[in-house]
Amino acid sequence: MKQLDCHNPPALTKSELCNLYGISLQTLGKYMNNLFIKELQEVGYRKRMILLPPIVVRKFFDLYGKPLNQSDYENTV
């Protein structure tokens, strides 16, 4: 079983990120495309990205907080 390393995360799809937090794609979009857009764009985020590179995932973890449901990551890989 793979554990999620929040300091060195893998690339994740937006759906996988939603599963980690237990939120919908619509809610994730509000956070990423409105609330945190400037900070995420600084590390290379674009609104139309489907696969989020590790640097964007790590920045989202820093901004929103690390997911509590890290065991759900095991079910996504």
Helix content: 40-55%
Shape: globular
As laid out across the biggest beta sheet, the strand order is: 1-2
> What is the rounded distance between the termini?
9 Å
Helix count equals 5
Question: Which regions are unreliable across 5 or more consecutive residues at pLDDT < 50?
Answer: none
Number of domains: 1
Summary keywords:
2 strands, two-stranded antiparallel sheet, single chain, 5 helices, 77 residues
Task: List the topology elements.
Layout: E1 12-13, H1 14-21, H2 25-35, H3 37-41, E2 51-52, H4 54-64, H5 71-74
Antiparallel strand pairs: 1-2
What does this entry look like structurally?
This protein is mostly helical and 77 residues long. It has one domain. Helix content is 51%, strand content 5%. It is built from 5 helices and 2 strands. It has a two-stranded antiparallel ribbon with strand order 1-2. The model has no long low-confidence stretch (mean pLDDT 87).
Give a brief outline of the structure:
This protein has 77 residues and is mainly alpha-helical. The protein contains five helices and two strands.
